[in-house]
Write a structure and sequence with these properties.
alpha/beta; 11 helices; binds phosphoenolpyruvate; 8 strands; about 260 residues
Length: about 260
């Protein structure tokens, strides 16, 4: 079964409002009107509505980089799923490694955020991946299994039709060190097998799994060529419209 490629640009804590608008316009322009798979932009919270407005009517959709799991209340500085939906955003990153390592999101918090996203109708991109020491001591699969097990505990396949998983080895994020296509494929195949066991073969065959970690125009083709890699989650290179468009174009044609 052919899965539609999905490539996301995580702008992290970069851009001002005018820069975000200009970047969104430029990405839209570079991609043109041809459908090149699903394309997602993840700008900072304050720019979600403006970026959603700039890409309206195109093949580009917008997502938030995080959310809080509570619906509303005295949580100063936090942003709820409903707030994100109200901006026109359709997707949300959950469990990005920087949220886990810098902001202390545990597997349990990630699970709560995933449920809040689903309850609000947001399409989640669940990020998983091992630290360098974990790869070196041979626990990559165990780490990814634990992250998936806790995040998806108790959820049914029907609730997860729009789930995207991003495999992002932490040692490759923002470091310039990309996993080789073979290293990435090995973990993607493992995640797909895990999904088949946990849900069903059909669910696993449908679920899109992105790779993230220092993806550039120059290494995207080799990664996309792997049978279980369905797209990229791009940080640094997504801040340059040309480079991001080159990564999107490296994806397989939309069936
Ligand atoms: C990311 O932020 O998800 C990421 C993969 O960043 P970079 O492409 O810069 O490594």
């Amino acid at each position: 079964m052919a899965r539609t490629p999905v490539t996301g640009g995580n702008w992290k804590m970069h851009t001002t409002l005018p820069e975000a608008i200009a970047l969104a316009q430029e990405v839209r322009h570079r991609l043109g009107s041809q459908r090149l798979g699903d394309v997602l932009l993840f700008p900072p919270f304050p720019f979600l509505a403006a970026v959603a407005d700039k890409v309206a009517g195109s093949h580009v959709n917008v997502g938030a980089q995080d959310l809080h799991f509570e619906a509303k209340g005295a949580f100063t500085g936090a942003v709820s799923a409903a707030m994100i939906v109200s901006t026109g955003a359709t997707h949300v990153l959950v469990g990005h490694s920087e949220r886990r390592s810098v902001f202390g999101d545990t597997d349990e918090i990630v699970a709560k955020k995933l449920r809040a996203a689903l309850a609000a109708g947001l399409k989640p991109v669940l990020c998983v991946g091992e630290q360098l020491a974990e790869r070196q001591n041979g626990t990559t699969f165990a780490v990814v299994d634990r992250q998936l097990t806790v995040a998806l505990d108790g959820l049914l396949a029907d609730q997860l039709q729009h789930l995207i998983i991003a495999y992002e080895p932490v040692w490759a994020i923002g470091t310039g060190l990309t996993a080789s296509p073979e290293q990435a494929q090995e973990v993607h195949a493992h995640i797909r097998a895990w999904l088949a066991t946990r849900f069903s073969a059909a669910f696993a065959a449908n679920c899109r799994i992105q790779y993230g970690g220092s993806v550039k125009g120059s290494n995207a083709t080799g990664l996309f060529a792997q049978s279980d890699i369905d797209g990229m989650l791009v940080g640094g290179a997504s801040l340059t419209a040309d480079e991001f468009a080159a990564i999107v174009r490296a994806g397989r044609a939309v069936p």
